[in-house]
Write a structure and sequence with these properties.
The structure is a homodimer.
Chain A: H1 5-20, H2 27-34, H3 39-44, H4 48-71, H5 78-98, H6 104-109, H7 120-140, H8 146-165, H9 167-174, H10 183-199
Chain A binds a DNA duplex (18 and 18 nucleotides) through helix 3.
Chain lengths: ~210, ~210
DNA sequence: GTCTATAGGGTGATAGAC
DNA sequence: GTCTATCACCCTATAGAC
């Protein structure tokens, strides 16, 4: 009844890549942690690099598919569009934390890790998701110029990536002020802030000292 | 008049850590790039780890000191407070890019890199900066509850970190739509979005599907 | 499919001559 | 302060027995 070798490798890789980083995780430590033989990584996957891509594919593709499914139900309601974007990711991250295998840091780092971390398959779906949400935001916010909207969508991605990637840091600074395991609360905070940012006026000049 | 050995090591380390990542940069490649001897790293710094901290200290402390100086002039004007927070970082990142030694990715990753990347010295100043800006935002936004403000400040940090950490990715997706070398434009976009997010109403319930 | 053994090479750190 | 040489160890990937 324990999962098979291939899945155990994926599980351990996910955990260690998240906590130690990809480059700091050797295949020896990884296979020891998984309780499998060192050579099995190269048998089931071709290389460490391919393993990394398999780990990310398994996590990110379901998230992005759920985003597309939820977006189809959101209409032009800005909060629902944002919910469709954030909820699948927050669910995946907090579910994994509850199961003792936190992936927050891994998900938070996918945009900024050096090297070609993502397979073309994952990249293609992420690009598709970006295009769909861009169109949805345009419909919901017809007064925001496309160039400003492009920046703002990246800011929406960024606040989420940072929330996941620096979750331990945020938790440390909170000192009980906020709960990082309350997903509805986190979603409310992210959505409220992102909606305010997306709707903001002033993509031209103004401000600065 | 080339800079001395210690500085050349710092310069090369900064460049390679940014482009390849800390864990992927070996001291051999680093010292070859700097044109110095391998052993000089352990002479001038004690270890690779201490070198990492020295690299970050040199860049981050001036940024944080400028933030404090600008904040003192901002009063309770939200846009000026945000300008005080973002401008020193955007300046440092874009200056370095113009000089052919881009540090954006390095700065963008400091919050999410695994391991204890930052020295206690840098941590202390960053914590101080966070407290000061938190107080300033509270004065400028008396109606935002402290718990919501705590999240929102992290979102403000996150959109900046992601903008730097994923700058090459953003540039790739832009396809000429936006310019990533126009610092006043980037600052305008970041400040407008962050101001909208910070001011948003709805830290309680509402929204979601 | 799973194992052992090992090839072939890279790593951070240091001793000791200059 | 700077060099060479080297220690002691870790790494990914693979060949070949079972």
């Amino acid at each position: 009844m324990p999962p098979d070798t291939k899945e155990r490798i994926l599980d351990s890789a996910e955990l260690l890549f998240a906590s130690e980083g990809v480059a700091n995780t050797s295949l020896r430590v990884l296979t020891d942690h998984a309780g499998v033989n060192l050579a099995s990584v190269n048998y089931h996957f071709q290389s460490k690099d391919a393993l990394v891509q398999a780990v990310l594919y398994r996590r990110l593709n379901p998230i992005n598919e759920k985003r597309i499914a939820l977006l189809a139900l959101a209409g032009v309601d800005l909060h629902k569009i944002l919910d469709a974007f954030y909820r699948p990711a927050v669910d995946a991250v907090l579910d994994s934390a509850e199961q003792g295998r936190p992936i927050a840091a891994l998900v938070g780092r996918i945009y900024s890790e050096p090297g070609e971390l993502l397979s073309s398959q994952v990249r293609a779906l992420m690009s598709d998701v970006f295009q769909r949400f861009f169109a949805a935001f345009q419909s919901a916010l017809p007064n925001v110029p496309p160039d400003a909207l492009f920046w703002r969508m990246h800011f929406c991605v960024g606040l989420m990536a940072h929330t996941f990637g620096a979750l331990h840091l945020i938790e440390g600074m909170a000192r009980g002020r906020v709960r990082i395991d309350d997903r509805e609360e986190i979603l409310r905070q992210m959505i409220a802030y992102a909606a305010g940012g997306l709707k903001a006026d002033g993509g031209s000049q103004c401000a600065s000292s």
